[in-house]
Amino acid sequence: MTAQPVEPVVPRDPGEDPAAIFEALPPPYRARFRAEYDEALEAAHDLARFKQVQTLLRQWRLRAIAYARPGYEEAVQDALQKRTETFTPYTPPEWDVAGRKSGVRIS
User: Fold this and answer.
1) CB-based contacts of 99, cutoff 8 Å, min separation 6
2) What Pfam families is this protein classified in (predicted)?
3) Which pLDDT value is given to residue 78?
């Protein structure tokens, strides 16, 4: 028997389908999604607020993907506990260039 390489777990993208988002969410987040979704649907009766539904679905789609990532809960706890040694420092390249131009280092 030979060992097979382990493929990285990539969370499934539920798209902007509310039922797929609901199913992709871990159970502790489903009630909040449902409440916010129902509120957005109610607001959508006013056509000026219709985009609220689309915005909500986009936000929750990204949350569902993030929540499904392995290590998500641990990373949140590390951040809340200010355990910075577990994070890799990152400065976007455009910030570094802007910092050098102004003489201020952003990190």
Assistant:
1) 105, 106
2) DUF6247
3) 87
- How does pLDDT run across 79-97, given as a tens digit for each residue? 888 887 877 777 778 886 6
Q: What pLDDT does 70 receive?
A: 87
Residue type, 76: V
CB 106 within 8 A of CB 96: yes
Alpha helices per DSSP H over 1-107: 18-24, 27-43, 51-68, 72-80, 93-102
Four-residue CA torsion sign, 70, 29, 27, 43:
negative
Distances in Å between the Cα of 46 and the Cα atoms of 38, 90, 95 are: 14, 43, 41
pLDDT at position 105? 53
